[in-house]
Amino acid sequence: MSAASTRSRTPDRLCAEAVDLARAAAEEAAAPGVVGAHTGLASEGDRVVTHFFECKELGYRGWRWAVTVARASRAKIVTLDEAVLQPGPDALLAPEWVPWSERLRPGDLGPGDLLPTDAEDLRLEPGFSGEEEPPPNSAVSPDMAELVEAEDADLTAGPPHDLPAAPSRGSIAAVAEELGMRRARVLSRYGLHVAADRWEDAFGAQTPMAQAAPATCATCAFLVPIGGSLGQAFGVCANEFSPADGRMVSLAYGCGGHSEAAVMPKPPQPAAPVLDETRVDPFPLRPSRDSGSVPDLPDDETAELGHA
Question: What is the model's pTM?
Answer without folding.
Answer: 0.44
